[in-house]
Amino acid sequence: MDFPIAVALAKAVPVLPSGPGWWYEPKFDGDRAIVWRRDTVRLQTRAGRDVTEQWLDIAAPAMGLPPDTVLDGEVVIWRAGCVDFGAVRSRSSARGRRLAGLLQRWPATFAAFDCLMVRGQDLRGRPYTERRAALLDVLEPLGPPLQPVPSTDDVDVAQTWYETLTVQGIEGIVAKRADSLYRADRSWRKIRHSESTDVDVVGYVGPRSRPRRLAVRLPDGRSVLSRPLSAAVSAGAAAQTASAEPGRQDRTSDGEPYTSTAPGLVAEVAAGTTRHSTVTVMRLR
User: Fold this and answer.
1) Among the options 11, 27, 176, 190, which is catalytic?
2) 0.85 cut: is pTM over it?
């Protein structure tokens, strides 16, 4: 299916960075994934975990990409014209017959927003506009379920997206500089409707198979423990930690012990909680 995004005519008070050189994309609420097309197709998380089995309906059509092509994007599920993050989390943690059933009930779409490599040529050191052109080029022959995210350099159009697409589950807008290179850190400007922030997960407390709390690094550099995790967040964290090598013992900035974990896992935490000694983890990225 096509991304059901239409541009309305409403005007609103600007909240986005503006000026020459800015580009804007809707921020889809899904699971971040890298698509590798080599001899076969492999999907993996930013932490390197293989999730191809969970997203076979993306992997199969991705075989149509040119060999030695790598894309970055979000796996999303549309239900009744809206992005359903809960459906994404259900599929990402399912196995066996349950996964097969969800694959049929809730087909996925890959919202690609970057092209890291095409036909063996590394594009990470190229400007955003060049990588965007390469992305459009490799995806144009394919169509759904692999599609480039909408993009514009018109701040008024982006502002309209920001104000009107919340009903479809769009989190906000990602603003990128035309000359920006692809970097592994979070260098893009994200303007969300919800008051939250992304933080790096550096460890956990409890068993690897069911973490009770996460150790996170806040934007100011401090490391702290989260509040107790919900069952869904704990299960998602376990998918990352259970298969990893046991980490070393470490301590937060306040001296609380935790077990370290491999880099790459990102958590969204409620805004305002970062002023205190604990944070509330809303979801994993």
Assistant:
1) 27
2) no
